[in-house]
Amino acid sequence: MKKILLIAVVALLSLNNVKAQLPDGSVAPNFTLTDLDGNSHDLHALLDQGYTVFLDFSAIWCPPCWSYHTGGALEDLYMNHGPAGYPNVNANTTDDVMVFFIEGDGGTLAELNGGAGSQGDWVTGTPYPILPTYAGSNSDQVTSDYQIGYWPTVYQVCPDRIVTECGQSANPYSLVGACPAPASNDNDARTFDYAGETLTCEGDIVPEIMIQNYGLVNLTSLSIDVAVNGTSVSTTPWTGNLTTYATDNIILPVLTGLTSNDAVTINTSYPNGMIDSDPSNNPTAAFYVSLATQNTNTFITVQIVTDAYGSETTWDIKDANGMIVLSGGPYSDLGANGTTIETPVSGTLNTNECHTFTIYDSYGDGINAGYGTGSFSVTDGSGTVLTSGGVFTDIDGGAFKTGSQGGPPASWDCDAINGCVDPGTGSGLYTSITDCNAACSATDVSEVISNLSMYPNPAKDVLTIEGSYTSIEIVDVFGKVVLSSEYVKTINVKSLSDGVYMLNIKTENGIAVKKITVAK
Question: DSSP character for 315?
């Protein structure tokens, strides 16, 4: 659900499929942008000079942005602590900070100067550089690079290039002291908390680690050791040429035969063939392996309990090839404190195959924040909960591997009024007793799929389905049913937009899920 800022309710970014802000601890993407006065600014060059840089990403139409902009906090920060000799910086500056205002939503020059559609005149009285993104100025790629999900977003970037979202602080200079000491040794490699994969479906993981040169001379070599349960399994001699504060993400040899709770450790040593000058900033990276649930029923039900901001929530299940086989959302927005249990989405997956469930929140605060009401769950036909939750940031989920058994639980009641009903939740999954009984009798989706064929694929105007089935639903990538029909041999898909669709085909033996592409 949307966060409430101290100044005002935050204004949302008008972009589709935007992800949440850069996580704290990320390396700041570099930019070279030109301000309204024609001066060019390179972020990493300023950081390399030892400046802590504050980035105010705002939009000209955003009331909270205007309130913070006119509050004076960043004005004071720049004038009293900005680079010596820069315009509007006091002579007695501490000379350790730089400030930028980035109008990241393409506001025009007229709007920046207070034209129609703007909250006011953003230019007059602003002492620090303004970096626009309207056509003919800078690219708005910087907005994407910093994954701006709402306005305003204020980042603090320390000289080591690490980003922290610092919010609308009234005293931002107090945050500068949290930056680590500058590089002071010749041979010093730095590592970060492990952020690679820890969940495996087949017992294989490709570990990775990010290193940074925290030395004053270029980092050209490093040794990286990986151990499982205390036993060394690989030593990787890395070579490269990293300048001070530059980083590299290193993919390490694959680990195989892993099981749940195996302990993996990664150590770096001997930068440039020397003893590391400061081993405190490259501690052992460690994690425990999680093995995906094995041999699950192929019949899957996804249930979403939405909060007041259901339109922020989408999800999908992908097969081993990365193709979406089931999906849902966005859902309806509700009133404040409102919740609803969305109708569960069910389908039958391929047998003996790894699948991943991922749920997305476009705002970046999950579906169980603030009001504490949203949740999700993925359950197979045997009643096993494969993954569940609600408290996350922009994505969450889990992995599982199907077995050969399919079909919903035999214990479900088949009721001509309510359809096939889960006695635990009362959630109806089918609309007729015929569909319910057919689904309850399904044991192996391979029998269903083998008797069906569709062509052409991609389809242009008409889709032909060979085989016996009772009804069909065509679902778009957002989980919306866009076309449905009782049995016919040919279906007119001319009305559908170009794109990928999932077909939920109900047969006497169960539900087959197929994918088609419409391309005109």
Answer: E
Q: What is the pLDDT of residue 13?
A: 32
User: pTM for this structure?
Assistant: 0.68
Q: Is the pLDDT of residue 341 over 60?
A: yes
Confidence of residue 452 (pLDDT cuts 50, 70, 90): confident
Residue 424 region by backbone torsions, left for phi larger than 0, else alpha for psi between -120 and 50, else beta: alpha
Whether the bond between 456 and the residue before it is cis, its omega within 30 degrees of 0, is yes
Tokens 């909960």 correspond to what residue? 385
- What single-letter DSSP state applies at residue 351? S
Beta bridge partners of 474: 483, 503
Domains belonging to the chain, first-starting first, are: 11-178 (3.40.30.10), 189-291 (2.60.40.10), 295-407 (no CATH), 445-518 (2.60.40.3080)
In 145-207, at which residue ranges do the beta strands (DSSP E only) sit? 150-151, 153-157, 163-165, 189-191, 199-200
Closest CA to 42 of 51, 57, 244, 164: 51
Q: Are 282 and 187 in contact (CB under 8 A)?
A: no
Q: Are 282 and 276 in contact (CB under 8 A)?
A: yes
The pair of structure tokens assigned to 467 is: 């085989």
d(CA 12, CA 150): 5
**Structure token digits, residue 508:** 């006497």
